[in-house]
Amino acid sequence: MTLVRPAALAASMLVATPSLAFAHITLDTGSAAVGSSYKAVLRVPHGCSGSATTAIRLKVPEGFIDAKPMPKVGWTLDIKTGPYAKSYTLYGSPVTSGATEISWSGGNLPDNEYDEFVVRGTLAGDLTPGATLYFPVLQICASGEEDWIDTSGSEDGTPAPGLKLTPAQ
Fold first, then answer.
1. Which of 10, 17, 66, 81 holds its CA 20 to 30 A away from the CA of 102?
2. 10: three-class secondary structure by DSSP
3. How many CA atoms does the CB half-sphere of 110 hold within 13 Å?
């Protein structure tokens, strides 16, 4: 039996999961088919400079329709709705509005703990396969905040969680 040394294990984890190395808010599943149902699981690995996370605010991306968040015990859920930029078709019917922002607040996620926030929706059938759909997140903490909103595709700074769109199945 061969034992893996902790340093070697840590190095292999950094290579295998580069987004975790930077400790950004990320999506649990990094790709999904256009036109499919998708469960966006936002992974929150830390607070803000040592302080606890007290709120998460998600800007629902255009094309992620019929978004429905999962409530969390101990957190207050707020869903802002409004018109979509265009009309989409869902189960044969036109959809022109829905959730545009979802927030969980009033909780307490210590800096040294990890949690997930979940939203289920549908990836519109006219999204472009090969593109990335970004889920911008504002992380509010007891002292300060982090804006995970950069949609440039860079892993530097404060990148928004991104979902690689694959062809419809």
1. 17
2. helix
3. 2
CA distances from 167 to 39, 101, 120, 164 (A): 17, 26, 19, 10
Q: What is the CATH number of domain 23-166?
A: 2.60.40.2230
pTM of the model: 0.85
Each residue's pLDDT expressed in tens, for the chain with a length of 169 residues: 333 333 433 333 333 333 333 458 999 999 999 999 999 999 999 999 999 999 999 999 999 999 999 999 999 999 999 999 999 999 999 999 999 999 999 999 999 999 999 999 999 999 999 999 999 999 999 999 999 999 998 888 899 999 999 999 8
Name the residue with tokens 């300060």.
Answer: 144
Q: Residue type at 9? A: L
Q: How far is CA 7 from the centre of its chain?
A: 29
Class of residue 95 by CB neighbours under 10 A (exposed 0-12, middle 13-18, buried 19+): middle
Q: What are the sequence ranges of the domains in the chain?
A: 23-166
**Distance, CA of 37 to CA of 124 (rounded, Å):** 9
